[in-house]
Every structure is written in C-alpha cells, then in structure tokens.
TrEMBL record:
Family matches, as InterPro entries: C2_domain_sf, Ferlin
GO cellular component: membrane
Gene Ontology BP annotations: membrane fusion; plasma membrane organization
Keyword tags: Membrane, Repeat, Transmembrane, Transmembrane helix
Protein name: MYOF protein
Signal peptide span: none
Lineage start: Eukaryota, Metazoa, Chordata, Craniata, Vertebrata
This protein's record includes keyword Aminoacyl-tRNA synthetase: no
Subcellular location field: Membrane
Length: 229
C-alpha cells in the first residue's frame, strides 16, 4: 500500500483445511505486484496437537496462532552486492496475524473485513517499550578465506541493520578483521583477548506477560530436574 510503510488491511481470509492435514506448512508471502519480497511459515505441528490416543490422555487442540506478530524474511535487494552474496537474508517487516480453526462445513466465503471492535480490542494490547540487546563475540572460526575484510552485525528487525535508514544508527557491528590461516585447513579472526561487543536498542510491543510465564515454567523444570536427578 504505497506510500504507507505501515499499512493496515484488517481483513480475514477463509480457506478449507482437512484434518489430519497432508502438508505441515502454511506459507505466507509479502508481494509487490507479482514479485515475492519476503515469506513466513507456520508449521501445523507447532500450532496444533492431535492429543493422546490413550484413554484419559492429554486432549489435543486445533490449529491456532496469535494474535501475534509474524516476521517476514527474504533476499536482500541490493544491486551493488556481488553474485556470491545474493543469498543474504533481509528482514522485510512483520504482520499482526491471528489464525483460528472452526469445525463445520465451509460457507463459501473467501474474504471479509474484521469487526472494528475486534481491531480495537487488539490495538489496546500493543503499547511499546524499549529493549536493549548486547552481544559479545568470543571467537570466529572456520570463516571463508580471502583478502576481504570481515565483520559481524547484530540486528533485530530494522534495528542495527547498517543498510537500513529508517532507524537510528547503533553500535551493532564488530570491527573489520582479516581472516588468518590456522595452519591446518581453516581460517579465523584474530580477536584473542579483545572480544568485540555489539549493542542494539529497539522498540517493540511489551509481551513480557508471555515471557514471564514461560521463564517461570522453565525455571520450575530445571529446579525439579536438579532436585530429583
């Protein structure tokens, strides 16, 4: 939707799905005309469960996802890059998406608009806050040989991407280094005692209520394993 960089479709699509499915993937794509910019994949095995077959087993659930943001990645479009780096992956944006499954006979609908009340209900849960990410690079071994200088980049979406001009610059890249031969068959970067550090400050929706529950469950599992191990 040019020239808007943050379009809002507020649309719902309907498609039939037979269970159990033959394929495990639902693939979504961002298109510009007929050209694919980025893709994202939902695995049905990760968003659904058949449940236990034994009597009084764990009940399953139908495919469901979100509402949550789904990031899209695709090849970086930069004519200045050499053919050897055409496979470099770039972040192309994200989509706020919800997927739900309902049993019954399809009514033939393929597309509709989302109720404004449902749109408002989701928007009130999207307040943003700042997050900081710091990465320490301890070693870089088995790097490609050649005269080109190498460096690593730490990024979250557009944040930290030195080729993106929509976000403020950040100390997200390591210093350039020339690979050295290890005397056997590989090359490495001579960082030795000076370990490079990269940092990125970004702004995202606050999903700490999900992280807190997951971190609590993982901490309980570690405690139970260490106690009864």
């Amino acid at each position: 939707m040019p020239p808007d960089a943050n379009p809002e479709w507020n649309e719902v699509f309907f498609f039939p799905l037979r269970l159990p499915p033959i394929c495990d993937e639902i693939q979504l794509a961002i298109l510009t005309g007929s050209k694919v910019l980025g893709t994202a994949t939902l695995h049905l095995s990760q968003i659904s469960s058949a449940g236990a077959e034994l009597k009084e087993g764990t009940p399953g659930f139908l495919p469901c996802f979100g509402p949550s943001f789904l990031p899209f990645y695709g090849p970086r479009l930069d004519a200045a890059r050499t053919p050897s780096t055409d496979t470099e992956v770039a972040y192309w944006g994200r989509v706020l998406l919800e997927l739900s499954t309902h049993m019954g006979t399809p009514d033939g609908r393929q597309q509709d608009t989302i109720n404004p009340e449902d749109v408002a209900r989701v928007q009130c849960h999207l307040p943003r806050r700042q997050f900081g990410l710091c990465g320490v690079f301890y070693s870089a071994t088995m790097v490609p040989a050649g005269p080109e200088l190498l460096r690593f980049e730490l990024s979250l979406g557009n944040y930290g991407d030195i080729g993106d001009v929509t976000c403020k610059p950040a100390a997200s890249v390591t210093p350039h280094g020339c690979p050295l031969f290890d005397g056997n068959r590989y090359h490495y970067l001579p960082w030795y005692g000076d370990k490079p550090v990269a940092a990125v400050t970004s702004s995202w929706e606050d999903a700490s209520h999900r992280w807190d529950a997951l971190n609590l469950l993982r901490a309980m599992c570690r405690r139970l394993v260490s106690t009864h191990g």
